[in-house]
Amino acid sequence: MTKTYTTVQGDTWDLIAYKLYGAETGAAALLDANPELSSIVVFPAGMELSVPEYTKPTADRLPPWRR
Predict the structure, then answer these.
(1) Is 44 in contact with 9 (CB distance < 8 Å)?
(2) How many of the other CB atoms lie within 10 Å of CB of 65?
């Protein structure tokens, strides 16, 4: 079963990623799963996005300035 997320007015890719995954880094996974919406920067309310599985990178894989 595919998970979905319905946008609220003012959502952005990184904000949605933070809401769903607890990290803005998940925005790339969301974009990859929803390529037809990649031109949208700020979402209107009511758009449905596919939500893929995502695992936040561990601190040892992040560059030093992001740890």
Answers:
(1) yes
(2) 5
Residue 59 lies in a domain: no
Q: What is the DSSP string of the chain?
A: --EEEE--TT-BHHHHHHHHHSSGGGHHHHHHH-GGGTT-SBPPTT-EEEE----PPPGGGS-GGG-
Report whether 5 contacts 51 (CB < 8 A). yes
Predicted confidence (pLDDT) at residue 8 exceeds the cutoff of 70: yes
Q: How many domains, the chain?
A: 1
Higher pLDDT among residues 40 and 62, named by residue = 40
Q: Is the dihedral of CA 16, 21, 27, 31 positive or negative?
A: negative
